[in-house]
Structures are given as C-alpha cells and as structure tokens.
Specification:
Distance between the termini: 31 Å
Largest sheet: 3 strands, antiparallel
Strand content: 25-35%
Order of helices and strands: EEEEEHH
Structural class: alpha+beta
Number of strands: 5
Helix content: 40-55%
C-alpha cells in the first residue's frame, strides 16, 4: 500500500499519512484491520475477517494468478473472481454487523 493522506473526520480533524494498516486478533478467530489517528488515537476499522473470509481471500488470490497465464480462460477467471468478491463482501458486512452490533 502506498502512503495515503487521511483527515481524522471522526476525531480531531487533523490530517495524517497512512502507509500501512494494523491488525489484531479480537477472539474467536476474528482479526480486526484498522488505522489509528496519531493525534487523537481515534480508531478507524477497515475490516474484520474470520477464518472463512481469509480462506475466500486466499482463493481469490489464486484465481487472480490465472490472469497472468496466457492460456487461462480469462472470462471464467473474471466470473469466479466476481463471485468470490461478492461472497467476501457479504461475509465481511455480516461479521462487522455482528461485532459492532449494527444488526
């Protein structure tokens, strides 16, 4: 990830540069990926993952490698990539709602 300028819009309103995300395990196999404002320590959660989501992320990386193979069926690879991405998005939304109590 390249460095990105962020404005702490939920905290102190200061700008800061993010060049990497942090992650921590929060229990039950769930991992939280986030950044923290260095000025006010406000935490911004990018995503939550569990073993199932991480497995889907591994699968999508395998599918994406097919694009480098000139003999691979790129249409099928793109369809499979889209299917897995949809599954990841749905599962991440469900996990976030469960953890943050938005359900």
């Amino acid at each position: 990830m390249s460095a990105t300028m962020i404005i702490c819009d939920a905290g102190c309103q200061n700008k800061f540069v993010v060049d990497k995300f942090m992650s921590t395990r929060i229990g039950g196999g769930v991992e939280k990926v986030y950044i923290v404002c260095p000025h006010c320590q406000h935490e911004y959660v990018a995503s939550y993952t569990d073993p199932e989501i991480r497995d889907l992320q591994t699968r999508i990386r395998r599918v994406q490698k097919r694009f480098a193979n000139p003999r691979a069926d790129r249409v099928k690879a793109a369809q499979r990539e889209a299917e897995i991405q949809t599954q990841i998005k749905e599962k991440m939304e469900e996990l976030r709602a469960r953890i943050e109590g938005d359900s």
